[in-house]
Amino acid sequence: MEESKLKAARLLLQMRDHLATDAGKELAEKVGFVYQLNISPKKLGVDEEIFVVDLKKGAVSKGPYEGKPDATFTFTDDDFLAISSGKLNPQMAFIRGKLKIKGSISAAQKFTPDIFPKPSKL
Amino acid sequence: MATRHLITGQNNCAPDGASSSNPFGALANALLGQSSKAQSIKELPGASVNVPTTSDYSTSAPLSTIPGSENEFRQDQRPPGWGTEFIHGGSANDWVESFRPPGHPVVGGPAPNFAEFDQIYSNAGTTSGPALDGPPQRVLSGVLHSFLSSGRAGVPFQPVPIPALGLSEGDKQCIRDRSCIMARHILADQPEEYIQAQVNTLLHSLDIDNNHRMRNPLQGPYPEMEEYWNQSQNALRSAPMHNAADQWITEFGKQNNNPDDWAHSFEQHHGPNGWASEFEQHQSQMGMGQMGGANMANLAAMQQSRMLAQTLSSNNDPKFQNSKFFQFVSKMSRGELIIEDNQVKQGSASQSSGWADEFQTQYNANANSWADQFVHEELSQGADKWVSEFSSERNQGGLNEKWADEFSKLHVDDEWAEEFSGGAFGESSADPWADEFQNQLSASKQNSGASRGVYVFSEMNPYVGHPNPMQEGQELFRKGLLSEAALALEAEVLKNPDNAEGWRLLGVTHAENDDDQQAIAAMLRAQEANPTNLEVLLALGVSHTNELEQGEALRYLSRWLQNHPKYGGLAPPQPTDSFYGPDVIRLFNEAAKMSPEDADVHIVLGVLYNLSREYDKAIASFKTALQLKPHDYSLWNKLGATQANSIQSADAVLAYQQALDLKPNYVRAWANMGISYANQGLYEDSIRYYVRAVSMNPKADNAWQYLRISLGNASRSDMTAACDSRNLDVLQKEFPL
């Protein structure tokens, strides 16, 4: 995960740290789903990297989920960042074809910007 | 939309670059103008004209005293000299002459060359050598002159009998729209009725029907509307923007509390036919056939509901409501509401009621579902099911506002509504709709020119024309007025595009204002002008780090070392473009050994350790640097941000506080403070800091987005509407710090 060149990877690393904190644990408890993220650098589906955000266990890892994730999202690096920062509404992204979703709707509904940590700016 | 933008008319009269052949644009520039005469002469097409230096107008009221114009200067790469020309350069005739290409004879008689005039006046493409013959132009500018001077003198404008000008519809619309806007600038201190009377007289004497409503082709509705919105909220709160729909809106304002009356007066003013025919015109103008009714319908519905939701969001202030309503209507008038073109194409009398119903149904249908979906941005429904849910919810909507209710009573036509529900929405599938929407969005994105790495200038810049914007910018920056400083520095780099220091300081200003995109864009220009400036290279490294762009950040930080007079020797002799983080860190550690008293080396090391996520080392580096430079507020912020990113948010708050003690207007630190509280789950507190950040820099988009998220987390969704409409007054009142 550390080796990934994706911006998403950096954010997810921060998320992994964040999930270890009290606020992070609370957040994971509130959501309680497992999300798989398929993220490509530029073009959907090309050079995809797969991450798992497990909010049941409060863990973030690289590689496909062993088992069936509650929802799987496919998007580009930039769009993922835009969604996680609240710049892009996931629903809008979906409608615009920037985001593909597989899995349970109720799980997908909880995939919102507030589950992601906000990077502080130097 | 900047008022000048409106006036110079890139929307429906002439695109950028061509508006110089537009008398109203010129006149507007004259009124708001700021450029030197010499410059303007050079810019004239067919510029073989000598322009007299005396003028009837050069002695008239100083431009700076025009009320309402203080903030209306538009920054523009296109030299705005036309206006100055118009005012200072000579009589109207000279000015008109200047449009004539060399050797082109003046046509003496009153035989106006309409076609050519039309071409010049509203033509979109031609910028070179417009062939223009005198009479209509001359008459027109004469009329405009007298209009202008009567405005200055404060006497009612006397209509003058003039020959038929043969103005095209487009011309008329231009004149109509712009004269309304301009009159408001010139006569800002006059009562509304007076302004309207003036404009009406002018339009009347030009044989232009003032009852038409402003319209625009369907280009980039989003940014435009949003800017309209901001404008109506801020600049024009005290003097609501009017356009050719003057009467209508005023009427609405007066009758605001009595929808029934309003509806009546609406009808009186426009009559069923007026609207309908206008509507029809739109259709033919815009070639709606190609776009497909269903797609348009959906698109329009979305946009409209967005506006509706805003309208509904808060309506305490009648003016506020007024301006929103105006937008809403003006949106409709641009043809974005052409949904059932099949309906409207038929007879004109029934069309009016058809339109009303269409609106009504739209309103019913959309107020709930669409507004919820798109405006409140909640995943309230599964995205998969979204389309079908939408159609099932379509009929559930209730009326949320009285006037719409009244409106519906006025024109009841169930048949139509049925057709509507069975038609466009029912049949349309999501895919073409989404495509359409996406095209629209990408188009509007292009229009706004906000691509990465390209500096986006503010539309209205009062510092353009300032004798020494650089000094002013430095002074403002020193005082901590970041947004103002950015404007002054923008004026400087417009004047001197190669001023590396101007660009650098502009970049620093944006970084402190929490806008890394603009900071990067400005720093890239600074680097262009001076490729080896160490501060610029460091700033680029920091900003790219903030944007999570490791590779770029590493590249600039390595260049910092290569270009350093002292440590340059440490860098590998063959500069490569592939940098390996640990190698770079090793080199900087060597540099730190060479001169442990150099705070800058420790700062770069701190950034590099941030990149490699070795936060403890990063914190140590910044702390070392702080011992050497304890009053560097940006250093305190860097320390805080590093602590926050390594989940030490409580410590981060202390560091930010140090930064803010040193620089109270440090927007970035305020925003970071909010992030730290949010990371600790203290959402209420985070809201207060975000609100402080956005009230200092309303363009801090990140902070706005985070604010919205925190509002949701703090169960304060009641304030999301205020957040979406960027209503600072409400937010500041609700969340004082």
UniProtKB/TrEMBL annotation, chain A:
An example Gene Ontology CC term for this record: cytosol
Domain SCP2: 20-112
Pfam families linked to this entry: SCP2
Membrane spanning stretches: none
Family matches, as SUPFAM superfamilies: SCP-like
Gene3D superfamilies with a match to the protein in the record: SCP2 sterol-binding domain
Protein's UniProt name: SCP2 domain-containing protein
Originating organism: Brachypodium distachyon
Automatic annotation (TrEMBL), chain B:
PROSITE patterns: TPR, TPR_REGION
Any single Gene Ontology cellular-component annotation: cytosol
Cellular compartment(s): Cytoplasm; Peroxisome
InterPro entries: PEX5/PEX5L, TPR-like_helical_dom_sf, TPR_rpt
Chain intervals with Polar residues compositional bias: 52-68
One annotated GO molecular function: peroxisome matrix targeting signal-1 binding
Biological processes, Gene Ontology terms: protein import into peroxisome matrix, docking
Annotated TPR repeat ranges: 500-533, 599-632, 633-666, 667-700
Region ranges (Disordered): 52-79
Primary site of residence: cytoplasm
Coiled coil stretches, renumbered: none
Alphabetical keyword list: Cytoplasm, Peroxisome, Repeat, TPR repeat
Annotated family: Belongs to the peroxisomal targeting signal receptor family.
Protein name as annotated: Uncharacterized protein
Protein's organism: Brachypodium distachyon (Purple false brome)
Organismal lineage: Eukaryota, Viridiplantae, Streptophyta, Embryophyta, Tracheophyta
